[in-house]
Amino acid sequence: MTHPTDATLHAIDDAIGTDDTDPRGTCSQCGRPLGNSPSDDFCSENCQAVWRAANATVLPGHEVLDRVRDIVSRFNVFPSEHCAPMLALWYAHTHAADHFYVTPRLILSSVEPGSGKTRVLEVAQYLVRAPEMTFSATTAALFRMVSEGPITILFDEVDTIFNAKGGNNEDLRGLLNAGYKRGAAVARCVGDAKAMKVQRFPVFAPAALAGIAGNMPDTITTRAITIHMKRRRADEEVEEFWEEDVERETAPLREALATWVGSVTDKISRGRPTMPPGVRDRAAEIWRPLIAIADAAGGHWPDTARAACVHFIEVANADHNGGGQRMQLLADLRDLFTARDTDKLPTTEILAALHEMDEAPWGDLDGRPLDSRRLSAFLKPYGAKPKDIKLPNGTVVKGYRATGPGGLADAWQRYLPPSATSATSATVQVRTVADTGEVADTSATSGASPPITDGR
Question: What are the DUF3631 domain coordinates in residue numbering (predicted)?
Answer without folding.
Answer: 228-415
